[in-house]
Design brief:
The protein is mostly helical. The protein contains 6 helices and no strands. The chain has one domain. The N and C termini lie far apart (about 65 Å).
Length: about 140
């Protein structure tokens, strides 16, 4: 089965299940207030972390370095903000994991091809050889 279809159907089912479980424990109004507060606090913290990432990226550019981690981290923060805006507890947990720098670094390094052991051994890819200049008979 296609992964997208599983996600489109599975995530709402998980969220509905969690709404029912949490709502039965703390009440419907408290559940709604909890969802709204996680969205507000999550967006505020995503903005804060986004500015920190932007500041770090600008300092990398000033050093004339490519801010690759900052670009990927900024995309992860935008994804986390989207997950925090969506109502639900499972999406909030995933969004919170992407918001905090420590867990974001762990998650991104796990899925980054740059940090994989296969690519580190191939990092110094060069061919060693000898060459000789060949001049034409005219001396050109």
């Amino acid at each position: 089965m296609n992964t997208a279809i599983i996600l489109i159907l599975g995530i709402p089912l998980i969220e509905i299940y969690l709404f029912i479980k949490v709502g039965s424990q703390i009440g419907a109004l408290n559940t709604i207030l909890l969802i709204l507060s996680t969205a507000i606090v999550g967006i505020w913290y995503a903005r804060y972390e986004g500015f920190n990432t932007l500041k770090s990226g600008m300092s990398q550019l000033v050093k004339n370095e490519l801010p690759l981690y900052e670009i990927i981290s900024g995309a992860a923060i935008a994804f986390a903000a989207l997950l925090l805006i969506l109502p639900g507890f499972a999406t909030d947990i995933i969004g919170i994991l992407f918001i905090f720098p420590l867990t974001r670094k762990v998650i991104l390094s796990k899925y980054s091809k740059k940090n994989s052991p296969k690519n580190k051994s191939k990092e110094k890819n060069f061919i060693e050889g000898e060459y000789e200049d060949i001049e034409d008979k005219d001396g050109k």
